[in-house]
Amino acid sequence: MGTVDIADMDITARLAEKKPKVVFVLGGPGSGKGTQCANIVEHFHYTHLSAGDLLRAEIKSGSENGTMIQNMIKEGKIVPSEVTIKLLQKAMLESVNDKFLIDGFPRNEENRAAFEAVTKIKPEFVLVFNCPEEEMERRLLSRNQGREDDNIETVRKRFKVFLESSLPVIEYYKAKGKVREIDAAKPVGEVFEAVKVIFTPEAEKIVFGFITTEKR
Ligand SMILES: Nc1ncnc2c1ncn2[C@@H]1O[C@H](COP(=O)(O)OP(=O)(O)O)[C@@H](O)[C@H]1O
Ligand SMILES: Nc1ccn([C@@H]2O[C@H](COP(=O)(O)OP(=O)(O)O)[C@@H](O)[C@H]2O)c(=O)n1
C-alpha cells in the first residue's frame, strides 16, 4: 500500500462530480476496437479513450513509469491498474465531454475491480467485438503502425493474455446482462452497421423504421 496522495483523491472526487457515462469496448487484439471507436465518435459524439494509446503516450512523455510500461507492452502483459486508471481518470476529467468509450480496458479482473473501487463508475454497457484469432492475427501483422508489439511472437502472447485474463471480464459483465456482442469478422462498414443499432436510442429506431424489440 502506498501513501494516500491528495492529488489522486482530488481527481477521484472531481470525476465523481462530473458523473461520466462510460461504455467499455472490449475484444481481442486486432478485433477492430479502435477502428469502430473512431466511427462511434463521429456519429454519436463520444470521446474515445484507448487505454493502450494512453499508455503509449505515457512512454513518449518520458514519465518515470515509461520504461516499465514499455517492457510490459513488448511482452503483451497488462500494466498495473493503478497506472492505467490514473491516466483514464485524468483524460476523463480533462475532457469537456461526459460520454466516454473506454477501449481496451478493463483487460483483467484487477483492472475491473480496481476501476470500480476507485472511481465507483459502472459502465452503461460493454461492447464486445468477436473475431477469430486467424483474422485478428492477419490484421495485426499488416496494421503497419510501427507498433513494437505487432510482431508474431508478441501477438501470440497477447492472444494468450486475452483468453486467460480478458475473457473472464467479459463473462463477468455477461452475467450482469451488460454485454452487447458484435460479429467483428465482417468488413468495417458492416461491423459499423451492427454497432449503430446498439448506439441508436430505441425512440429513434422507431422514427427511422428500424425493427425494435420494444413491446407495444
Ligand atoms: N472489419 C475489419 N476488416 C478488416 N480489417 C479491419 C477491420 N477492422 C479493423 N481492421 C484493420 O485491422 C487492424 C486492427 O484494427 P484496430 O481497430 O487497430 O484493432 P484493435 O483496436 O482492436 O487492436 C487495423 O489495421 C485496421 O485497419
Ligand atoms: N488496460 C490495458 C490496455 C492495454 N495495455 C497494454 O497495451 C497493449 C496494447 O493494447 P491496445 O489496446 O492498444 O491494443 P490491442 O492489443 O487491443 O491491439 C496491451 O497488450 C498491454 O500490454 C494494458 O496493459 N492495460
Automatic annotation (TrEMBL):
SUPFAM superfamilies with a match to the protein in the record: P-loop containing nucleoside triphosphate hydrolases
Catalytically driven reaction(s): dCMP + ATP = dCDP + ADP; UMP + ATP = UDP + ADP; CMP + ATP = CDP + ADP
Binding residues for CMP: 111
Origin superkingdom: Eukaryota
A Gene Ontology biological process term: pyrimidine nucleotide biosynthetic process
GO cellular component terms, semicolon-separated: cytoplasm; nucleus
Coiled-coil annotated spans: none
Needed cofactors: Mg(2+)
Alphabetized InterPro entries for the sequence: Adenylat/UMP-CMP_kin, Adenylat_kinase_CS, P-loop_NTPase, UMP_CMP_kinase
Binding site for a ribonucleoside 5'-phosphate: 56, 77-79, 104-107, 147, 158
PANTHER family named among the record's database cross-references: NUCLEOTIDE KINASE
Xref: NCBIfam families: UMP_CMP_kin_fam (TIGR01359)
Family, per entry: Belongs to the adenylate kinase family. UMP-CMP kinase subfamily.
Protein role: Catalyzes the phosphorylation of pyrimidine nucleoside monophosphates at the expense of ATP. Plays an important role in de novo pyrimidine nucleotide biosynthesis. Has preference for UMP and CMP as phosphate acceptors.
Domain notes for this protein: Consists of three domains, a large central CORE domain and two small peripheral domains, NMPbind and LID, which undergo movements during catalysis. The LID domain closes over the site of phosphoryl transfer upon ATP binding. Assembling and dissambling the active center during each catalytic cycle provides an effective means to prevent ATP hydrolysis.
Subunit-structure text: Monomer.
Name by which UniProt lists this protein: UMP-CMP kinase
Species the sequence originates in: Hibiscus syriacus
